[in-house]
Design a protein that fits this description.
By secondary structure, the chain is mostly beta strands. It has 1 helix and 17 strands.
Length: about 250
């Protein structure tokens, strides 16, 4: 009770926020809570050689992020280990310090609100084909939808291979968190040859409830390209996503 004085250090009140955009200028769809931003405070160290452990900032599923409790200071923000090609300029850069130089330095003042966006190239772009449909059969109602994917390319990097796809069906705007595994119990293997073709996804069982909305999302991931270990990038296996679709089941 008598060992400490009252902590009078001012609470953090600076805000850093922004959006991840893909190479086409659209917000990047991610897994809700994905920690794809490394934040290292440069102004904390007493000298230039001191090491300050980075923290992670998390993203919403629409690619936006916001942290309203940052201490004033200078920060290096560095996209890392996401569902996109490495942020640095070339696959030949292997030194961690050299990679971090591709990050962005921002200065936060007390009470300030700074917006810092990032542009990345996702491994895959997954697009809806038409609208989801509800199919009525004697044993119940099924949800069906179609998508197609494009493998993207970033200059200086080879493309990995596609691996698997998943159909997330839930009852909230975050269908991955509320996903009912009975509707799509096993991931689906996909191949590079299916790029640009329409892929149909359908619930494996009838929906359990009617007269409500369901929320849908398709995810796909990649793996190291066969015979090309240079494509084993940090974060390999992170999923790319469609936007979220809402469908009403009468």
């Amino acid at each position: 009770m008598s060992s400490c004085e009252i902590d009078n250090f001012k609470a953090p009140d600076a805000t850093i926020q922004g959006t991840f955009y893909d190479h086409n200028g659209k917000p990047l769809e991610v897994r809700h809570g994905a920690s794809y931003i490394q934040s290292r405070e440069l102004s904390w160290a007493k000298d230039k050689d001191a090491y300050v452990a980075p923290r992670r900032l998390t993203l919403q599923q629409d690619g936006t992020y916001q942290n309203t409790k940052q201490f004033a200071g200078e920060y290096l923000l560095f996209p890392i280990e996401g569902n996109f090609f490495p942020y640095w300029s070339s696959a030949s850069i292997t030194d961690a310090d050299e990679r971090e130089k591709s990050g962005i330095v921002v200065t936060l003042k007390s009470g300030s609100v700074i917006t810092q966006d990032f542009k990345v190239t996702p491994y895959l772009t997954i697009e809806w084909v038409g609208e989801p449909t509800v199919i009525t059969e004697p044993n119940g109602k099924y949800i069906e939808c179609k998508v197609k994917f494009t493998r993207n390319q970033k200059t200086g990097f080879n493309r990995p291979d596609v691996r698997e796809a998943n159909f997330h069906v839930g009852r909230t705007i975050n269908p991955q968190a509320s996903r009912d595994g009975d509707y799509f119990p096993a991931v689906r293997t996909i191949t590079n040859a299916q790029e640009g073709t329409e892929l149909t996804f359908r619930t494996a069982t009838p929906v359990k409830f009617t007269n409500i909305n369901y929320y849908l999302r398709i995810s796909m991931n990649c793996q190291t390209a066969a015979g090309d270990n240079t494509t084993n990038y940090p974060g390999m296996g992170q999923e790319n996503y469609t936007s979220v679709k809402k469908v009403f089941v009468p």
